[in-house]
Amino acid sequence: MLTEKQCASLHQVIVSLILQFEEVVAKAQERAMEPVQDGNWSPNDQATVLSERACASEELARMSERLRALCARKEAIERGKFDGLCEECGDPIGFRRLTANPTACCCASCAQEREIRARMVAGGMAPSY
Ligand SMILES: [Zn+2]
User: What pTM was computed for the model?
Assistant: First the structure.
């Protein structure tokens, strides 16, 4: 269980992360809106711009996802619904881990296990897109 003080400082960490993410996402969205067909683009340039843009939009999707997770965690803290316990084993996630990774939902050892499982899935049974 997190103390009130820990909750407050974790909340602060999340709020500042959200602000940073919002800024980055807004800028990325602005860039994504720029017209490609303007000016004297050669077909090669256009291809480069389009593939860069595809990367940027993947990045944008990842960041939006993270932003959503941060907002959800922030709300949970505000409502006193976040207990700082691991979803998997119920042990405290640990304040240090939470400060470094405020959207963590399980403790370090469970996260490691999850990662290994995810890697196994990615290595074999996952559908290829
Ligand atoms: Zn755990």
Answer: 0.76
CA of 85 to the centre of ligand 1 (A): 8
Rounded-to-integer distance, Cα 51 and Cα 122, Å: 24
Give me the residues paired with residue 85 across strands: 92
Q: Taking CA 111 as the corner, what is the angle to CA 105 and CA 114, rounded to the nearest 5 degrees?
A: 110
Domain borders along the chain are 1-82, 84-129
Ligand 1 centroid–CA 114 distance in Å is 10
Instruction: Give yes or no for residue 2 having a pLDDT over 70.
Output: yes
Residue 106 is encoded by which pair of tokens? 């399980």
What number is the average pLDDT over the span 15-26? 93
Q: How many angstroms does the Cα of residue 93 sit away from the middle of ligand 1? A: 7
Integer Cα distance of 76 and 65 in angstroms: 17
